[in-house]
């Protein structure tokens, strides 16, 4: 899948007129770095070919840190990230999640906003529970 995504990116870059060094020629995983005098001089590909390079850009692999959530039984999407509604509610009643546990693109400000939305939803849930208890306990004949 990663090689197909890389091919797509190279194709789009070429379409818009960017000079892509090597094009599709080097679309395979590299297995080692070549370093001389503490400077990158190349990368060794899976095929054993060494490609001279002075810089390499690597996309981070985003992995959910959600063992607590999945351990509680929260459902996940096909991509492995926990499923939530707009307020951060999960498939497990009483469990909310926010930020990088559910959203691979959540930087600090986004994570904080999602956390705030989850906190508001949690508060609303607790208030609804308190109101329901108060109504039940205020009925004539209800135990005090």
Structure summary, number of beta strands: 3
Q: Please state the structural category.
A: alpha+beta
The residue ranges in which pLDDT falls below 50 over 5 or more consecutive positions are: none
Distance between the termini: 62 Å
Described by the principal axes of the CA atoms, the overall outline is: elongated
| Number of structural domains | 2
> Which sequence of strands runs across the widest sheet?
1-2-3
Strand content: 5-15%
Largest sheet: 3 strands, antiparallel
Q: What fold name stands as the CATH topology of the largest domain?
A: FAD/NAD(P)-binding domain
Brief digest:
With 144 residues, the protein is α+β, with helices and mostly antiparallel strands. The protein is built from 3 helices and 3 strands; from the N terminus they run H-E-E-E-H-H. The longest helix is centred in the last third of the chain and has 31 residues, at 108-138.
Question: SSE layout and pairings?
Answer:
Blueprint: H1 2-15, E1 30-36, E2 39-45, E3 50-52, H2 67-71, H3 108-138
Antiparallel strand pairs: 1-2, 2-3
């Amino acid at each position: 899948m990663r090689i197909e995504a890389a091919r797509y990116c190279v194709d789009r870059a070429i379409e818009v007129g960017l000079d892509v060094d090597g094009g599709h020629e080097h679309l395979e995983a590299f297995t080692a770095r070549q370093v001389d005098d503490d400077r990158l001089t190349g990368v060794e590909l899976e095929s054993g070919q060494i490609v001279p390079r002075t810089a390499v850009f690597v996309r981070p692999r985003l992995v959910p840190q959600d063992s607590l959530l999945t351990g509680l039984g929260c459902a996940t999407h096909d991509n492995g990230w926990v499923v939530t509604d707009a307020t951060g509610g999960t498939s497990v009643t009483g469990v909310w999640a926010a930020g990088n546990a559910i959203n691979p693109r959540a930087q600090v400000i986004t994570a904080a906003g999602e956390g705030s939305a989850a906190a508001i939803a949690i508060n609303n849930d607790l208030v609804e529970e308190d109101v329901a208890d108060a109504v039940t306990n205020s009925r004539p004949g209800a135990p005090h």
